[in-house]
Design a protein that fits this description.
Elements: H1 3-18, H2 26-31, H3 35-63, H4 77-100, H5 102-124, E1 131-135, E2 138-141, H6 143-158, H7 160-183, H8 186-192, H9 194-202, H10 212-215, H11 217-226, H12 236-270, H13 282-287, H14 293-317, H15 325-353, H16 355-377, H17 385-406
């Protein structure tokens, strides 16, 4: 296993798990900027940061007279294609986070991306995984098992609050049953069966609404589920759209990083330097340099696609959209900065360790990071010790599954 690739994947996942927080700040929610407008701020940060990477490279390049044959910048069309996948993924994230929440959105996008990436690169593109012997002409793979455990851990992290509520409901119901069976109170008898209720009514007692036994369970518990946006019919269509777009966002995110690996492989094959122990041309190496030409080309592509979408939006509205500068100059820029760090480290991880395993590691780290922000900073949902304990167990389980999945890839 490549430990530097794992480190890059974790750093990238932590950055990616942080940037959606700025999409759902109270100021952004109140301003309701168009998704393309918010994306414009992100794309602008990506575009400018690409040229910032070239500044120290230019200083070294201008002072080193021996490397003048190595170009400072080589435009890469594969980076444009990668950016074309990134823009829809960003738009779907911006649209769906305020609707279904950051936790569920990240879970759906991460799960779909993990499964798609693993199956595509293992079964279609031929990424080799370790096999184990189970006898003559018999072998099996553990990679699918660890991938399943990774996804299971991620889903458990997201739904830890619901699991906590069900556990507490079950415990409370059992405790109530034990207490009521021993006390055999008249209030509980009236609540249990019409026969007992009739008998108690004949003796002159009535079902007082203030009675704790009458006021509790079924109706109140039913209302909790009816008021849940996931189970209620109010806004169900919008919620469904958020779920579907989250799944599509995971698909486009996996495609974005797939282009990096496959594009580089295709260009090396065309240059006859992949299967042989020879050095690839300097222009090819530079064009896929994460610290230089690749990122600049990606920023150019991201800005170009976003501007085209913005022009289309302006034409459909008949005017320029509101850019919400007072709000997005902070939230949009911060989201862009964290995404830049995430994309930078994940690209390094993909180039170093391959897409099939790295993306599962990145997405697992994203889930854990998002959960930490929700529990500690935003204090989302149930803050009970039971929920925190369940979340920690799920986080450790996910991390272990993620690391074990990394050991299944055959290093070449």
């Amino acid at each position: 296993m490549l430990w530097d690739a794992l480190l890059y994947a974790i750093l990238g996942g932590m950055s990616f798990g942080t940037y959606p927080l700025f999409i759902r700040t109270p100021a952004v929610i109140q301003a309701k900027p168009h998704t393309i407008v918010f994306q414009l701020y992100k794309s602008s940060v990506v575009f400018l940061s690409g040229f910032l990477f070239l500044i120290p490279r230019y200083i070294n390049w201008s002072n080193d007279t021996n490397n003048k044959d190595v170009p400072l910048f080589v435009f890469n069309w594969w980076a444009i294609l990668s950016a074309a996948f990134w823009i829809p993924a960003g738009l779907f994230t911006i649209f769906s986070v305020p609707i279904i929440g950051m936790g569920l959105q990240v879970s759906l996008a991460a799960s779909s991306s993990s499964i798609l990436t693993f199956l595509a690169f293992w079964l279609i593109f031929g990424t080799e995984m370790k096999s184990y012997s189970c006898g003559t002409d018999c072998k099996y793979y553990l990679a699918p098992l660890y991938l399943f455990c990774t996804v299971l851990g991620m889903v458990t992290l997201i739904f830890s609050e619901k699991l906590t509520a069900r556990i507490r409901k079950h415990v409370c119901d059992n405790n109530n049953d034990r207490k009521n069976n021993t006390k055999r109170s008249t209030e509980y008898k009236r609540y249990l069966t019409p026969i007992i209720e009739d008998e108690e009514t004949e003796t002159g007692s009535s079902a007082d609404e203030s009675s704790p036994m009458v006021a509790i369970p079924p109706v109140a518990k039913r209302q909790l589920f009816e008021n849940n946006p996931e189970t209620s019919t109010n806004g169900f269509g919008r919620w469904t759209a958020g779920v579907l777009l989250s799944l599509l966002g995971g698909f486009f995110a996996s495609g974005q990083f797939a282009v990096v690996q496959q594009g580089k492989k295709i260009e090396e094959i065309n240059a006859n330097c992949l299967p042989k122990n020879v050095t690839c041309p300097a222009t090819l190496i530079e064009s896929f340099d994460t610290f230089g030409s690749w990122y600049v080309s990606f920023g150019i592509g991201a800005m170009a696609v976003t501007v085209l979408l913005l022009v289309g939006l302006s034409c459909s509205l008949g005017r320029c959209p509101n850019f919400h500068w007072n709000v997005l100059k902070s939230a949009g820029t911060k989201a862009g900065i964290f995404w830049v760090f995430g994309n930078f480290f994940v690209t390094l991880a993909v180039v170093r360790g391959g897409n099939a395993v790295i993306m599962a590691q990145v997405l697992s780290t994203m889930i854990i990071t998002s959960g930490c922000w929700g529990l500690i900073y935003y204090k989302e949902g149930d803050q009970s010790s039971l929920r925190k304990f369940l979340w920690i167990i799920a986080a450790v389980f996910t991390l272990l599954s993620m690391i074990m999945l990394g050991f299944q890839k055959i290093d070449k």
